[in-house]
Amino acid sequence: MSATAAYTDPRTRCDRTLAWGRLAAHHADAGQGFDLRAAFDGPQAAARVAHFSQQAPHVFADLSKNLIDESTEALLLELARECGVEAYRDAMFAGAPINHTEQRAAMHWLLRAPAIGEGGAPAAPFVAQALREVHATLDSMLALAEQVRADGAITDVVNIGIGGSDLGPSMAVKALDDLRPEGKRLHFISNVDGMELGSLLATLRPGSTLFLIASKTFTTLETMTNARAARAWFLAQGGSEKALARHFWALTTNLQAAAEFGIETTLGFWDWVGGRYSLWSAIGLPIAIAIGAEGFRQLLAGAHAMDRHFCTAPLARNLPVRLALLDVWYRNFHGFASRCVAPYSHGLRRLPAYLQQLEMESNGKGVDAAGEPLPYATAPVVWGEPGTNGQHAFFQMIHQGPDVIPVEFIALRRPGRDLPDQHARLVANALAQAKALMRGRGSPDNPHRAFPGNRPSTFLLLDALTPEALGALIALYEHRVFTCGAIWGINSFDQWGVELGKVVAQGLEPRLASGDTGGLDASTASLLQQLA
Ligand SMILES: O=P(O)(O)OC[C@H]1O[C@](O)(CO)[C@@H](O)[C@@H]1O
């Protein structure tokens, strides 16, 4: 099947399944009153933990502190089956154009598939051809990464990109910082606020700086504004037009626009790679510079191991599916509107920001694949900060506020760097928070000091923050988001909701200079006058 071939969505929308009604009845009956503390009292607790724990590639998960029992889980699995999650997953992995509103496949998984002849599964000709191109580009990218790593004259690499062309690479480079060669600094510039680029440029020298202009479209306002400002700075500092070609590289699908910008070294990718799924592609060059070719291949291998798990594990032991079913249970039946991600790992401090785009840009949709308005909620608000910092900021609300907010703890068995006692203190706090949320604490004499308990959490554990483990963790989230989108019957791969604001901004910008408020609403007109 080619990406443009006719394609029939194999899904049934969740609210049109039998399981949906049965889940609603189950929630009204037993589900909403589920008591975690009771589930952990008595001899059945060990069996509960065994049942709701599992080892997936590089990620161990304990789901037992969630508001769910085996009867709820059985109904949720029935929902996944009735919705056609498996057929839809197989369609994505066959290269079908499941991103139908943009007539594209969603083949980010192909970016981490082994080359043909290296154990890859047989694929349709369109997919096999794409895989050959993927490996050719990967080889070129890794060669360039090694070249930069070996080039002592380049001390600073500046990635200019936004959204998916920033969040994934920036998160991964921070996570794997221990592998970064000494003397090589990586910077990420995304905002069009000149404070960000301006402050960085003040610290750089043009001759020792490499700019990577990362943009799938090479038209994004923020990125192109920053790229032009960086180029102007480079020339103003005495850099020549000739030198510019050595110091500005492009990572993009728009080869022509990159050439028009004056860039000679361009790494391409394909329209079937969504921006928020692109860190595995040429957009990952800063990661490869930071961790080396071998490290980048390990990142891909970890993600591929999770792809295989997602494709082959039965739904009941399929970690992305189990996490997605919890998301649906909480969002659509309990009505929980947000989820907190708390990595107890300094390296993973940008994971919540990365997940905000992955989950909310993918699944923040209000119509189904046919364009029908949805009568149920989709993506929750995803937010968070690393532990233990979050404990001293917003955990108060998670423990005692009236809203229930499921928490996702992520911890490492082995620290990257350990100062005496620090890792034990860090993970003890993660365990303690999960336990305290579940158990709560009575305080008959002082209601201010009472903890209601019965607050759900998931605990994810990685052996260490290695490239493989990070790759597997990210792919786990990608497939979880996919599974939620499959159940909700939406297209998780477009993002039309970001268009309107961009168009309105284009109309307003000239008015800031002219002061023209004609035809504007009273509030916008008043603010524009304040700013003029
Ligand atoms: O890589 P580009 O084309 O500059 O786009 C950047 C980001 O802008 C968006 O299109 C919308 O915010 C994202 O989906 C994308 O990751």
TrEMBL record:
Residues of the active site: 361 (proton donor), 392, 502
GO cellular component, one term: cytosol
GO MF annotation, one: monosaccharide binding
EC number: 5.3.1.9
Biological process annotations from GO: gluconeogenesis; glucose 6-phosphate metabolic process; glycolytic process
Reaction it catalyzes: alpha-D-glucose 6-phosphate = beta-D-fructose 6-phosphate
Stretch forming the signal peptide: none
Keywords annotated in UniProt: Cytoplasm, Gluconeogenesis, Glycolysis, Isomerase
Keyword Cytoplasm: yes
Pathway assignment: Carbohydrate biosynthesis; gluconeogenesis; Carbohydrate degradation; glycolysis; D-glyceraldehyde 3-phosphate and glycerone phosphate from D-glucose: step 2/4
Name of the top EC class for this enzyme: isomerase
Keyword Isomerase: yes
Chief place of localization: cytoplasm
Subcellular location: Cytoplasm
Domain of life: Bacteria
Classification via NCBIfam families: PRK00179.1 (NF001211)
Function recorded in the entry: Catalyzes the reversible isomerization of glucose-6-phosphate to fructose-6-phosphate.
Protein name in UniProt: Glucose-6-phosphate isomerase
